[in-house]
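I have been asked to look over a protein record a colleague put together. Alongside the sequence sits a line of tokens, each denoting a local backbone shape. I have pasted the whole thing underneath without changing anything:
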Amino acid sequence: MIRLEHVSIEFGRRKIVSDFNLAVGKGQLVCLMGESGCGKTSVLRALLGFVPVSSGRIWMGGDELSLHTVHHIRQITAYVPQELALPSEWVSEMVRLPFELKANQHIRFEEEKLFQYWDMLGLSRDLYQSKVCRISGGQRQRIMLAAAAMLDKDILLIDEPTSALDSDSSGRVFRFFSLLKEQGKTILAVTHDRKFASGCDRTVNM
């Protein structure tokens, strides 16, 4: 479902990623690990065409990434960045933003389904009426993980899903990912969490 062959990424004269190869099969949970600044997030963004590669080739869902395929690739992929700077005052607005993107406008937002996912992730339904500025970083991460799962994409790209969570909440996130895997979803996650990584199908060090 995800394949990179000899991919390099440069910013200016600085090479962030050099000759990187990766293959992730359908229904797998694979994590990228490595020191800060080694290019893990850049790889996630390159998979969606947000960051250009200086060399190499990328395939997502069987299609090679190009100007002609990038829209379709974004339609089959959900991306949750580590830093969520979303222009919403209320959580009820924030969770609907992904459904307003061009690639997702055909998908119906279902409030009850959102709450079912929140229950799995240990989130109170009262948060729906909260202001975004009053919720924690960990709550925000899990709220948007649930919204991403609701999009029902074949591929999920997740940046540091447990960085702001305690061990109990991290366990809930891992079990949630396991459920998505059972549904055939392919997940590529960037993490520094070794406990989370130990449960993944494979860990790739960059």
Remarks:
- The radius of gyration is 17 Å.
- The CA atoms of residues 136 and 164 lie 9 Å apart.
- Strands lie at 2-11, 14-24, 29-33, 55-60, 63-64, 77-80, 155-159, 186-190, 202-205.
- The longest helix spans residues 167-182.
